[in-house]
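user: can you give me the structure for this one chain? tokens are fine.
assistant: on it. calling the predictor now.
[tool input]
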Amino acid sequence: MPKIEHIGLTPSQVQSFIDDGFVKIENAFSADLAKQGRDELWADIGLSPNEPEKWVQPVIRVASKSSRPFIEAANTPQLHKAYDQLVGEGRWLAPKGLGTFPIRFPSAVSPGDDGWHVDVSFGTDNADFMEWRANVKSSGRALLMLFLFSDVSDDDAPTKIRKGSHGVIARELLPYGDGGATLRQLSADGYASTGDCAVELATGAAGTVYLCHPFLVHAAQPHQGQRPRFMAQPPLLPKGEFDPTLPPSPVQVAIRQACGLTF
């Protein structure tokens, strides 16, 4: 009989998400979809994988993509099951595309965007992005996600992740209540409060996805390798505010445990 592959996360993976703030899913979407996505992105930026002499910028950003390869990559059965397991069944919106894409090229020039940060999730109508906000309920964001559309080794500018930093940020957000804290307030100390967290690199083969807690502190880095890195870093959007009448999801469990809240 053919081997039946496990769909979704194991209990240990869910617990790792709660403790560390992220889980790595290999083969979350196919290598063929990854190649189709890369081909579209190369066309979008007007460059070629065969003309490295034209790769003169350390990073080029593509805002979003909603064509078939990207929709399919974001909505595989494996990922839908994982979204259910981490956010709660029926509590998230199926992605209608992916973005943004910070496409990183081998370069001796600093990319200029490699500081530690968290991704804030509301108040984004303010022209000053440092006034964008996050709150302890993570209004407006269910997950931070990293979709690898190319193979990413240690040298290929993998995103740096501070393990367990989501708990530190949850405790820092708690006093701000529903109104939340601005990016300016959260970054005032340069995220020094998470400086002792172990660092993990978001490496893997094309088709790998990292599902991350919304409060996870992470950073870009310069590209020291040979081939450009293609990655999407979209949010998973919630259907609405967290409902206290429903069983807490692993996203909520991580927040409550970090803040010492009772269930």
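assistant: here you go. The first strand starts at residue 22 and ends at 25. Residues 7 and 169 are 31 Å apart (CA to CA).
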